[in-house]
Structure formats: structure tokens, C-alpha cells
Fold this protein.
Amino acid sequence: MKKYIIIGLLGLVTVFSSCNDELFLTPFQSIDQDLALSNDANVKSVLIGAYAEMRSVSLYGGRLQLYSEMLGANGEIRWEGTFNQPREMFNKSIVVNNSFVEGTWAAAYRVINVSNNVLASLEVVDEEDRDRVKGEALFLRGSMYFELIKLYGLPYVAGNLSTNLGVPIVLTPTRGINEESFVSRNTVAEVYAQVLSDLTEAEPLLPPTNGFFANSYVTAAQLSRVYLQMERFADARDAANRAILLSEANGKRLVTNFMDAFNTNGDSPEDLFAIQVNTQDPDNDMFTFYSLPEFGARDGDVAILTNHLNGYESNDDRLTQFFTGAGELRTAKWRDQFKNVKVIRLTEMYLTRAEANFRENTAIGATPLVDINRIRARVILPAKTSLTLGEILKERRLELAHEGHIIHDVKRVRGSINDNTGSDVFPFDSPRMVFPIPQREMDANPNLVQNPGY
Amino acid sequence: MPKILLSALLFFSLLGNIAIAQTMTVTGTVVSVEDGLPLPGVNVVIKGTTSGTVTDIDGKYNIQVDSNQSLVFSFVGFETQEALIGNRSVIDITLLIDAKTLGEVVVVGFGTITKGDLTGNIASVKGAEIANIPVPNFQEALQGRMAGVFVESNSGKLGEGVKIRVRGTTSISGGNEPLYIIDGLPITSGGAIGDFNPLADINFNDIESFEVLKDASAAAIYGARASNGVVLITTKSGAKGKTKFNVGVQRGVSSPTRKREFLNSSEFIELMREAGYNNDLRNGIDPINNPADFEGSDLEFVEGRLDRYSGWSDWRTLETETDWQEQAFNPDAGVTNVNFSASGGDEKTKFYFSTAYDKQDGIIIRNDFERISTRLNLDHKVSAIFNFGVNLGFSRVRNNRLSDDNQFNNPIQLVALAPITPIRDLEGMLYDRPTTTYYNNLIDSENAQWLNTSFRNISNIYGEIQITKDLRFKSEFGVDVMNQNQEQFFGSRTNSGLSTNGFARSSWLRIFNYNTNNFFTYTKAIGTKHNIDAIGGMQFQKSEDNFTSVEGQEFPLDELRTLASAAEITGGTSTLTNFTFLSYFARVNYKFNNKFLATFSARADGSSRFGDNNKWGFFPAASAGWVLSEESFLKGNETLSLLKLRASYGLTGNAEIGDFDHLGLFGTSSYGLIPGLTPTQIPNPNLTWEKTEQFNIGIEFGIIRDRITGEIDYYDKSTRDLLLNVPVPATSGFNVQRQNIGRMQNYGFEFILNGAVVSKENFNWNASINFARNINRVRELAPGQESIPPESSRSLNGIFIGESIGVFYGPKFAGADAENGDALYYSNADMTETTNDINNAERMVVGDPNPQFIGGITNNFSFGNFDMNFLFQGVFGNDIYDGGGGFFAANGDWFDNSTRDQMARWQNPGDITMIPQARLGECNGCQASSRYLSDGSYVRLRTLTIGYSIPNNLISKMKISSARFYLIGQNLLTFTNYKGWDPEVNADFSASNVSQGNDFYSAPQARTISLGLNVGF
């Protein structure tokens, strides 16, 4: 009998020892990190992955724009939605665990980490594409640091650059969590230096056209925004001028009818850079919060107030963007579902060049008057014969209204924002218009210092 | 010879005839088998009647009886005996000790054991105790019946998840649900599409018993998967004898346990106008007293909104008064159940067959549940040494489902709509925005469908061979195939399909899970004093999860609802994932002289889920018991008839994490329809099991010949190497890394008392009480980490060292400032200072969602042909966070309709109230804080049954062996101070290990009353 038992047991052991191999399974939807960075095609796919992170609603997919509008509401728009995260920004009383504030921080650093992965794996990228891949990764990283520093740090023009805290700078890919992962905040000056370094290095590496991905004129346009924040107007002017010349040379132009610039399938001729939205990849939080149920959005969370309309001249064609829906005035700039999210339009470059030329008393590319009248003519407004800085800034405010520019322009020109209901006025360097470092991040990393006022 | 036979027959038949006619006196003495002493108080009843007597102090009785009748002798703690009178006038009876208490068979992993020999802690419920309870899954039916087993449904939505915690929560980021095993097969109990509960596929009338393995000794045989307890489910099998048929029908009606009170039109208008006007006054204008101020005022804005929300009607004359809450409930809710079973067999073959239809129409609109199930269990004995069998279980569930609680189309969210809004416009169409404040989800009732269909096959086969007299080998192979399909369609008028001419999604899931157990059982008695019972073997399990989904939009008509009609396919995905477990196990039970008991078990588990450096884990356990009542100084003592001490210690694991959490991975993503790769996970090759060490000490006792029995247990479970999603700096590009770090402790006691309170001829009353206290403490997190604070600004659940998991942490609300109506919060920990700025509020632990005590009291009565039983179940000392309060209890912050208590808002200086001043859109106190926290303790009359069995003499003529009518009530009474819909709640969209005790427009439970009939023949 014992013999049978032993034979039986041996048989079982043989049968089930094959089960042991079954303990080593690999996933079907993911690949190992070493494999992902092992060859040309894979690293290029990782680069696409960086764009995929950057297009999320937490970043250029809508919320970066929304934050600016909420912080800069100034009695011209009203947040009416149930989401308390935008409402806290609207009221300038942001709670340290505001989940939007936390989400944007994390998403930006995801883009940075993916970019760092690409930058660390350039040696496996084909030689002929290496510059482009490197340039795009630098553009993405620089852009993210720029968006972070604008929201999570005091404005550049607030001075104290070497003491005011910016955000931590991370330039190497994360392969594991170790002591180096617990970074500290760099200063505002250091972060701006990093942004400039990334973008200026990227610009010459990039080709003039690159589909809907970053190219050299997009990078120049982004640089012009950075210089404006830093009040380096001559540099801003030159960067804007480069963006204009190169993009026009590649077919970019103002569309004839103002409203044709919005709700477009794909990029319009005046889009220098836009987030690609389609039914497969539908997220667009500006649409979600600004539009109405009949267009597939929420309930119309943002209403336009008459205060805002008062700024327009009576025949301004831009007034056609406003319509009444769900009982309130709305802007149609974000009306339709599955449309690209505008990030940089050509008009911004004309406005930047005009302002910078005006401030520097130069006429690089065109005179300020020519640039401003170009904008005005398109919206059927009479040409100006003379200009003041105030008029240029006003034209900028109206042309780019509801597109996420307002708070950054207010801050750099040292303006102020009125409280929505009370009588408080928030100066450009008010800590209440700076995001807190997310509580989650403060808890996860003891080396971080919270922003003033939180 | 034939003549003699004939006369004999005649004689006997005559005797019979005489006997029928003859009433005689029968006397006798009843003694106990144990000591031969007389038993007083024994019931002596004439079978089939209600007449009888009781033995006197000397155990003697005296009764008038017909000779063809039988006497039934019954006494608590002894087996009931029957005796045919015949021609006897003296019938002495020796009653045998009822082996029920000690000899009750309990199912354990890979075998059974008699309760008397058990040294571990196992809770057991017989299927018969919960048969016919009108709930969709067995988990809800088990509520309150097992000490230390906490059961909570997310809400009253049908087919949804149920949370079970056996002796507390052991894991922060891993799973906390017990392992479910049906007839040896670990079944799929999670991972279904949506929140569908895979255990709702099981018809629990087919279940013979449920055993929950609670301590390490009982559970460690399931090693790496046993930390959260193991639920062993044994299905019914046939018994030798005549085939027994049973038919049951039940029909009942359901209604919500409670509704809330919301403002009527006049109150709503008053509050909203006041909210706008208060803003105006604060901004220095007075639109009521200075008409010039009206234009541009918030009051004007409010009145504009009221105009908009009142549609065709005039809010000024209160023309419309809509009770939106009423619209969310289904007036025709109820249950229907029809079941049939047959069981029987002969020497060689036994069978159990059943089929059942269960239908529940939910108390919430658009929600129902229908299950058709069948089962065939067959055992066949081929020879003296070989038998085999098969258990086949099939079911189909159709479940019309609802969105999660945090969606506008959750029916309960209708309460947000204004009472001044008419339901329909003058054309009879349902109003939607902008007339309704938010999406009017009644449109979903007309223009959408969301059907979940699940096909389930849980089957296994086994063969068992008797190798020697003492040694057996059993091989089992089981499959659990879950095929789930979810068809969603949202028409062109719905929120989801409005802008796209409809939206549809079709999702398919198949989880194929197979398992084999192969083990030896060795049973040996050595001499008269030593008993050994040992098992040893292996188990292999593999589960494959295959999911596919397609979605599309642009439908030509709302009547064409399948994706074939979608002009645009907008999304699709298919995913595949799998896991394996390979295990070896052994257990030895040793018994010495019926006094000393010991069990040793060990299991080695390997799994694909763990890192290469830690593929295998080893989980040993040991336990010992001492039956003091077998010792000479107690033996034969009737007062203390049983006394047993037991203790156990062992190690179990928890492997409920993602399938590939140990790898460093890049996942797929895309931008502009171009595929890409993004890092998704940081590697951790050291990832391994959570380990739970558990110590248990218990005492079992029986008093007055086991008329009262009880168990008291103390346990201490310490879990280390927690599978923790450790927050890492997001600057790394990752938010969390799965690490084995941290410790959690659960300790407490369990108390069980069973008693035969009254045991008279025709009246029996048995009661059972169970009561448990579990204390959960987070002991350690990542180095330097003191807490994991609440994840979102709308929730308060967090993790703090030294506190229970998921405690509510946030600002402590201090009511309204008596001077100006500002919402106040305490700004220091001593709660002596207040602030009106929530960012300056001191954040502190303000509540705990974990109950301090849970318990249940069951009472069974039988009185002649009537029977009654009821179960009171209670949960004590937990808090509930009413997350919807920020919208409907926010003193008119926005146009969501408010609960009536908001009318107590601050209005004038000097008002002392907890409700701050109404200020439109200013969130005066609407943020997450202790304001929305309240005590969630409750006691509930969970089940009440009243039955009447038709006397045998009436039904035997109809060839029926039993017939019972019954009335069953579920959730008939609830006692609680909680002001929300229902205190048994855990909002489904956020429910997690940490996020507990949240209410968010969650549906209340159903109160059901139904009538049933069971007939056996």
C-alpha cells in the first residue's frame, strides 16, 4: 500500500510542479520600465506619453485656464457650479487640500518625470530624430515648470527672487523612491532660470513644423510668455516676433471671422498650439465648466456678468460670443464638445509684440499700432491712430478673455483683483492668489515649506 | 403451518383492533444515560397532539394514552425519544445526551470536526436559519447572527456591494473582505463591472451551513489569504431515504425604512430670498427697503432664479408644490420568491436538486433584481473504498442598475430640485434644466436603460479513495465562471446623451477561476486515549479576468439602443489580467483522553502577485484546548456541564492587492490618437504578503446540562508589513508606491450566550445573544509618517497613528456666531477659541466610522403549531458623515432644496443656533467639518417571522408531510438618532478601507413584509 501512496505522491508532485511556472506572470496592458526605454520607437512612445499627461484636464486640458479665470474673476464672471474647488479659487479662499490644486501639482510633475525619462534615454533614439525628441521633452518640462511657478509661487515681479520660494526642480527620472526623492523648493529665480534654460535650449532643436506637437515657433511663443512675466520686454518682443514670422511662414494666420477661431475640429489657422480633443479622448474642462447641458456639458457653472460686457465697444464683433443659456449670459468660446483646447493663439503674439515694442519704444516686426489694428480690424472695430499702454492691455484683455490669461496678466502688470462680493481688493502679490502647496504633498515630503497665508 | 400463520395474523389484527379501542394508563421513569439518575421536568407528549405531562421530582410520569399512540420524551440537553405504546403499561426511558452542542459537526478547511473537539474560533450559521429572508444576497441575511462578523450594505440599492469585516479591518490599501469558499472552491467575490456584488448570484436557500473561520488556528490553513477571515459555504446534499420535495412561495411589499424632510415651496422661497438679501445687506444695499437698489442685487438674482425654476407656474402664489423625494421611490416595490427542491437517495447515490426564482422590485425607481438559479448535488458510492460526486450550480441574474450615489442620475439626487419646480411642462414633457436646478433624472426612467446580466456557474467534482482503514485521499476540481454583461443606454434627452443624440456602452466581463485541492486525510485512534486526525495536501488556483467594452453615440432614434445603431463609436477597450496561487498545507489534530486537544497547521503559499524576492510565504498556527468538564472534579456535574478552555496563535496573510503591484511598469496612453507610453508604477521586487499574527483565548461553558451554553473569546490580531500605498512626493512623478510597511492592530472580545429559556410541553423559547467589541488601531505607517490625511476636501476620513482606520478628521464646527451668523470653527485643540476662517480652524479627530460594539439577539419561539422568531441587530458607537449636507443642509448656500432643519438658521443678533446665516453662494459653513457628522448607532428589528404549521393530522390525508404559512418582516423597526435616510450606509462611489461611514444621497434600506408558504411532501 505504501508503495502506491509514494507513487501517487510522486505523480502529484510531477503534475503540480508545473504550477510553479504559473507563479511568474506578466501583465497584458503594461510593459516593464526597462523595456519601455530600450529602443528608438519605445522612447518616442514615451514622449507621446508625456503629451498625454500634459493634455489631462489638470493641465492644458482646461484647468490651467480655469484657474486663471477663477482667480481673476474680478466681478466679471461668476462661479455658479457645485464644485467647491474652483469656487475656492473664485473666492480667493483656497483650502490646503483642494483636490484640483493637488491634481495639477501631481500632473505637472508626471509630465516632468516622463520628460526626464526621455531626456535620459536619448542615446537610443535615432540620430536624425534626436534633436527633435530632445527639444520636445525640454519644451514639455520647461512649460510645466512655468505653469507651476505661476500658480504655486509669488509672481516674478514681486521681487525677492532669491528668497521667495518657487517649486522643487527635478531633472532626473525617478527609478525608485529614495532620499533624493524628498526634494526642497527652489527659489523663484532658480525656477525661472530652469524654464528659460529648457525653452531656449529647445527652440533651436525643434523643427519649424511638427504636426500638432511642439515646434520651434510654439517654443518661441511660450518663451515670450515667460519673458513677459519677467518684464524682459525686449526678449518677449523678439520671441513673439520669431513665433509670428515662423508660424506665418508655415501658414498660420488670423481667421476672418472672430468666432471661427473657436470650437474648431482640429487646429484652426490661428492656433499655434492647442490640445487635441476628439470623441476618443474627449476631456476639456473649459467646455465642461463653461458650456451647458444641451451641448453635453455640466449645468453652466460659469456665468458672464454685465460688468464684463461693459468693457467692449458697442460694435465689437467679439460680443457675438455671448449668448443666454440656462438663464445666464455665457461665452461661446468653449461651447462645443470634442473641440480642441486653445493654448496659444496667434493674436496673443501680436498683442505681446505690440506691448513689448510699445514699452521698449521699438517697432520690431511691426509697429504697435499695426499689430493692434490688425486685431481690431478682424473684429470690425475702427483702427486706432494712437495708442497708450492701457489701450494695448485692454485690447489684450478683451481679445484673450475667458482663455486663461487674465490672472497672469494682472499679476505681471502689478494690478489687482476685486473680491466678488465684499469690498476686499487683492493686490497682484496677494498670497491668497497663490495656490497652497497641496497638503498631501506637505505630508508626503517634510522638506517642503508651505506658502505664506496657508 | 398455514393454519397457524393465519391464526397468528388474526390474533395480531384482533389485538390491533382492541388496542385502537383501548385507552390505558402508562407510567414510567425517565433517567439520564450519563449517571442513571432520574430526570425531573421531562416533557412527555402524545405524538401528534398537544396533550401530555411532565415528569415529577423522581423522574416519574403517568399519562392516559391509546395503545396505538406514541409518546415523545423531550428535555433540554438530551435527545428526544419516541416510544410506541403497544400493550405496555410501564415504559421506562433512558434519555441520551444530546450531542447537538458538543457533537455538532462544524466544517473546517479541508474537512469537518465536531464542535467539542474544536480548538479554534469558528462562527456557524445553518442555512435553515436564514432561509426565506427576502434579501438579494446571503451576506445581508447573516447580519447580526455571528459574533464579531460585521456586515453593512452600502445602501438600499439592489445588487450592490456589501462590506463584511471579520474581527475588524486589517489592511489599509489591500482588501479587507473575507475569502469565500464554496464546497472547497475559492470563488470570485469582487471585480465585477460597476459595484455589482458577485455573491448575489448565489441562491442561499441551497446552503446547508455558513462557517466563518475567525482565529488563526481555524483560518491559517488558508494561509496567505486568511487574514480577513474565511467564509466556508457548504451546499446541501441529499440523505438516504424517501425523496423529499419542498415547494415554497413568497410574496411581499417593500418600502424605504425612512424618508427625510425637505422644505416645501414657501419655506424654500423664504430661505433663498433671505440668502440673497443677506448678501445685499452685507454689501451695503437694501433692495427691499430701497427699490433703487434692486437692480443688480443678489435678491434680484434669486428672484430671477425662482422665476426660472418655477417653469409655467408662479412661485409667488405657491402654485407648485413638488415632493421630489417621493419621486425617487418606487411605490410598487416588493419581493417574489418561488422555489422547489427535491432530495433523497439510497445506499449508493444521494442527490439534492433545487431551482428557484427570486425577484425584488427595488424601493428606488429603475432598480430591480431577478435571479433564476438551479443546483444539482450528486454523491455516488462506487465501492467501499471509492466515492465521487459533483456539485453543479447555475444562475442568471438580471439587475436593472443605478449610477453611483455621486451622479446626477442617482434617483435620490432628485431631492436637490426645487419644490417650486413642476415635474412636467404644460405639454406633459418632463422638465429639465434650466427649469430644474439640476438634471431631472426622471428622464432616465423614460429614456434610458441600464441592465446588468450575469451568468454564473459555480461547480466542482471530487473523488475520494479510502487507501487504508485510516487513510483517505481526496481530489477536488472546481470552476467558477462569471459572465457579466452590462448594457447601458442613455437616450437623447438624458444628461449623458443630450448633446450626442444618445450614448450607449456595452461591457462584457468574464472571470474564469479554477481551483484544485488534493489532500490526504488520516484518522487514527491509538489505544483508547489517543486520537489523531491529520490532513496534508496541495492547492492550485488560477483566475483570469477578461474585460471588453465598447461605447458609441449618435443614435437615429431613442428606440434603437444597441451599439449597432450608433453612428459614431467613440471608445472601446479590452483588458486581460490574471493571478495564481500555489499552496501546500498540512494539519494535525490530536486529542488525548477526550480532555486535551491540540491542533497544528501550516501552509506555504506562492503567488504571482508578489515580487521575485518574496514569492513564497509560510503560515503556521497552533492551538490547544482543555475540556475541564471531563476532569474528575467536574465530570457529571449538572450545573456546570461543560467547561472548555482553548487558546490559539498563528500567522495568516493577506494577498488582496493588484495583480502586478511589484513590477515597475509603463502603461499605454495616447495623445491625438497616437499611442504612447507612460510610467504607471514604481517597482518593488520585495513586495510580499501582509502578515497577521493572531492570538485567541476562549472559554466555552454549558450550564444545567447545557441548557445554557456560551462562549467568550478574547483576541489580539496584529498585522504587519501592511500592503500600503505609501504616499510619495508627487514631485517624483508618482503619488504612491505599494510597500510593505506599517502595522495595524485589532483586538477585542466576543461573547455568545445560547439558552433554552422556556422548554415546556407546547411552548419553547430559545434565545441567542452575540456581542462583540473590536478595537482597531493604526500602529505604524511609513517611517516618519504620522498620518494619511483626508484625500479630498469633501471628505473627512483619514488615517492617524493611534486611531482607528478612517477616523473623521477635520475642523470642529462650533455653530453660528450669535453676533453675526458666521459659521464658526474651533481654532484650538482645547476648543476654547473660535474662528470664522476654516483655514484657521484646528483640524482634529472629530469622529470614528468604526463601530465600538456590534451584536444581535435572536429569539425562537414555538407554541403548538405556531412559531415565531425575531432578530434584533445593533451597531453602536460609530459616526456617520452626511456628505450631502454641504448641499442640502448648508443654510441656503445655493438653490439645492434644503432639509427642514435649516429653517433654524441664524437670523438676528443674539440667535443661538447651529445653523449659520443664509448667504447665497458664500458657503457660510458648507465645507466638510464636524457639522455634518452624527452618531450612527442603531438597533434594528432585522427579521421577524411568524409561522403556522398545519397540524399533521390535517395534511397527512393530502399526502403532504408538512405545510407552513409564514409572515416575514425585514427591517421592520429601526431605532437610531441618525437624522439621515438610514444609518446602515456607506456611499458607494467613495467606499474603501479608509472611506467609511459616509452618506451621500445614499438610498435607505428596504423594509419588507411578505407572506409565504412552504409545503413538503
About this structure: The first helix of chain B runs from residue 2 to 21. DSSP finds eleven helices and 52 strands in chain B. The longest strand of chain B covers residues 568-592.
